[in-house]
Amino acid sequence: MDDRTWTIVQFSEDLTVEAIPTSWIQGEWCHWPPFKQEKLTTSIKKCEALNTNWPRHTIKIFRNATFDDYAKARLKAKVAEDFSDLNSESECKGKRKRIQKMLSSSSDESLENIENTKLPPPPKMCKLSIKPNANDTVSSANLGQSKFEETFLKNTPSSSAETMVHQTVSNTAVKSYGNANSIKEWPDALMSFLFIIKFWWRLKNQNHLIRGILVNVLNEIRELNNNKVETTSTSIFVKFPDIQFPIENDEDFHKFEEELGNEGNFNEVVNELAKFGGSNPYNFIKRSMSSILNDSVLKNYSWLGRKGKKSLENSLTAKALLQAAEKCLRCNRKDVELAIQSFVKRSSERMKNKVNKNNGL
Questions:
Q1: Residue 20 backbone dihedrals phi, psi, to 5 degrees
Q2: How far apart are the first and last CA of the chain?
Q3: What number of CA atoms fall less than 13 Å from residue 307's CA on the CB side?
Q4: Mean pLDDT over residues 50-60, rounded?
Q5: For the DUF4806 domain, which residue ranges apply (predicted)?
């Protein structure tokens, strides 16, 4: 069952209205991904999982504005956008009632066209401006502090640490300029404070993005390390210099079997054979087995050792081939055994064809 939902919210910074995945909302905050337009649209439609490293913005949530259909949520968001600029408390009440009424309506006549609507860019931080009149005077320290909080603190996200910094700046400005006769004596210093904190806030958002990128890179490196194939091992064709590959006599074949009795050698041979690969079990056996055993040896063997031939079933070479096939193809063991039987059975036929080819027949 699909439990994805979208909620209509209004961003406090620029008063834009948007339908966003409900999982992106945390209290009065919304995490907004720093993606380009196409990827952003896809993320919202698919309800991409929340990443707390995304920048966050303050929002207002409309009541009864959560939907399990994205197209309907976008349509309702478009309706709410026309009434989102609330200028006064009285207008706010009336317009919000109209929004709630329209949001609760069941009209879906524009759902077909809403998918092509272009999403707005992420909200931008509010630019603060303080332009006091020359005739304005500061009657008390409280007046200076209230103006400062009105223009800056109200539009800046707050946490326990950030609020402490903002309050410190506010108190410093009030102590330095709160008792001045004219407000025009302190805007330059106050704007310096605002510039520093705004710059700090941007650095913090960039730090969140960098942290997110680093986490993804570290995860990829970890995954590569986990799936890394050992490449420093010596090839089996070099590791056993006393054996000539492909093996053409029983003596060398017995030497190879003795070398496979060592667990370390056996594992290296399995890894080496697994690198041959193949489109199917028979193709893999043909590629790998022909590099180890010549047909002149295989003609004396059969899988079960019938008709006077030697058994290959219990040999370490066969076990290494089975494990290598399962490792690289993830196939059924029975299919690999049948492939070995078929390849060994045709050894005499291959030798005959090779002789005819050399004789030009």
A1: -125, 160
A2: 68
A3: 6
A4: 87
A5: 241-321
Angle at 356 between CA 351 and CA 360, to 5 degrees: 150
pTM above 0.70, yes or no: no
Nearest Cα neighbor of 111 from 64, 67, 71, 151 is: 71
**Spatial distance between the Cα atoms of 10 and 120, rounded to a whole number of angstroms:** 12
CA angle at 221 for the pair 218 and 223, rounded to the nearest 5°: 110
Q: Which residues pair with 20 in a beta bridge?
A: 7
Helices (runs of H) and strands (runs of E) counted in the chain: 15, 7
**20 CB burial (10 A radius; 0-12, 13-18, 19+):** buried
- Enumerate the domain spans of the chain: 6-114, 141-226, 236-358
φ/ψ of residue 261, rounded to 5: -65, -20
pLDDT number for residue 239? 83
Tokens of 358: 């050399």
What is the spatial distance between Cα 342 and Cα 345, in angstroms, rounded to a whole number?
5
- CA distance linking residue 17 with residue 139, whole number of Å: 39
Higher pLDDT, 264 or 96: 264
- Containing H/E element for 167? helix 160-177
Mapped onto helix, strand or coil, the DSSP state of residue 104 is coil
Give Dmax over CA atoms of the chain in angstroms. Answer: 117
Residue type, 193: F
**Does the structure show a pLDDT above 50 at 15?**
yes
